[in-house]
Structure formats: C-alpha cells, structure tokens
C-alpha cells in the first residue's frame, strides 16, 4: 500500500510539474493579448496612441553637426534611421514653441497621417519574472497648467513615449502593475489594480502629458519631475504646483469589445522593428511657457523605448516607483 501511495504522489508531482512548465510556455503574443491595457482619455485630449511610421513620415531626420542641426534626410523611413550618432526627428510642419505648444498644428498633422490606434508590446523574460510592457507613442505632448488647455502656462515637446507594465510570476500569474508618469511612475499590486474583464488593467491617461493613472480625476505631479526653472517661476508667482487632469468621459482604447477604439498590438522587437535602435530623440527641443515670463527651451524631446531605464532593467526601476 505504501508503495502505491508513493507512486501516486510521484505521479501528482510530475503532473503538477508538467502543468507548471506548460503554463510558463504560453506564447508571448497570447500573454500580450491577455493583459493588454484599456486606456481612458480625458474629453479634451487631442491625441491617441499611434504608429511611429506616421510621425517618422511627417518628420525630417537631422544630425547635430558643429553645434547646428542639419537635415540629412527630408523623407526618412523606419529602416533609414541611423543606429549611432547625435540625431533627432523633427516634425516638419509644427513647433512646440508655438501657442499652447503648437497643439492645434500637431492635431491637424496627426489627423492627416492617421496611423491608427497602436500599442507596442514587449515581453521581457527575466530570471524570476516576466514583464509585459505596453509602449504608447503619442504625436505630441502639450501639457497645460489650466483646464481646458490655454496659453497661460504650458510645457510641450514632440514624440511622447509612455509605458504600462504588467509583472508576472515565474508561472505567469499577474503580480503587479506599474504605470509611467512623467519622469517616474506608480505601481500597485495586481489585486488592487482596476481591471476590465479580469485581466486587462484600466488606465486613465492625463490630458496632454499622457501620464498614466489608476483612477480618474486630478493628480499632483511628483515634484522630482518638475524642472527647477518651472518650480521657481511658480513659486515667484505664488501659484500651486501643477496637477494632471484625467477626467472621465473621453474616448477609450484597448482590446476588442472593451473600448470605443480597438488598439492593435505591434510586437516591439529590436530585430523586426528597426526604429527601436534609433538613438536620437523623437522630436525637436522641448519648450516651457508662462504668460508672465515668456517661452524658453527646456531640454530635449524623449528617446525611444529601448533607451529608457525601465526597458533595460524593468524590475529595478519599477521597484523604485511609489505605490499609487
């Protein structure tokens, strides 16, 4: 009898082990579809996440030569983007230094190209976890201090990249989510993450900045993400710190049946998506404007996903984000 019990126990252990291996071998494409986020936008939002090809096709490729930006390709394609050097994509028709960050101009250009609703999905298989990353590309970032957007105070740049992370255990059970917000982000346990249909994280996207939040409404910036120059001007003017606006009632995007717009997942693979290796910035210089001060440059536009720390070392970076 004891021999039969031992054989039965061994069979159970083998079956469990087989099930665990099978579960861990779920195709990447299925994992990305299972946990694809549902994004809700503010009613005033002018942009949705789109394909990079529309922005690339609407930009000139420029190289920094002896302190000056020189056009090296007036009509670049994704495969033509260089992998080394100091380059930038500069949207041809608009400038983020214009009124309200050029919002109206960029909206017109974006609508003309219509790259569709797209999210770039990446699966990072690590030693003790799997991280699903959903990278969203927005044509323009035009944050306004006031709601709705006005020319009072704003910050703007071209080519905005944001990411939503879903962390899975070694047996592919969801453990945690982490949403990007300006220079950092916030994280939550899976059990505390709002979800649609059980597995799709719900994300509330802030107007203009496209920072991602777990709930709608207004959200105070992390002070670490506010440039010192902007902090000084706000303090001098006796104004409170800026907030993000993510009110309900706008469009929603995500997997089929979950939203107004179906968002297609494109696999973010550095071999099949050559543009991921582009080392330059997605846009020209950033600008900051205050009606009582003027318009001043404020650094460069963002680099692409593969050059972000959360791509290179996702678990370490996410662990440093506060719980939201």
Can you describe what's shown?
It is a single chain. The protein is of the alpha+beta class. The chain has helices at 2-24, 28-34, 52-57, 103-113, 228-236, 309-312, 314-319; strands at residues 38-41, 59-65, 68-73, 87-91, 118-125, 130-144, 153-168, 174-181, 184-189, 195-196, 200-205, 212-213, 217-220, 243-246, 252-254, 261-262, 264-267, 281-282, 287-290, 294-297. The strands form 4 sheets. Strands 5, 6, 7, 8, 9, 17, 19 and 20 form an 8-stranded mixed sheet that branches. Strands 1, 10, 11, 12, 15 and 16 form a 6-stranded mixed sheet that branches. A 4-stranded mixed sheet has the order 3-2-4-18. β19 (287-290) and β20 (294-297) form a beta hairpin. Residues 1-23 have low confidence and may be disordered.
Quick overview of this protein structure:
With 324 residues, this protein is α+β, with helices and mostly antiparallel strands. The protein has helices at 2-24, 28-34, 52-57, 103-113, 228-236, 309-312, 314-319; strands spanning 38-41, 59-65, 68-73, 87-91, 118-125, 130-144, 153-168, 174-181, 184-189, 195-196, 200-205, 212-213, 217-220, 243-246, 252-254, 261-262, 264-267, 281-282, 287-290, 294-297.
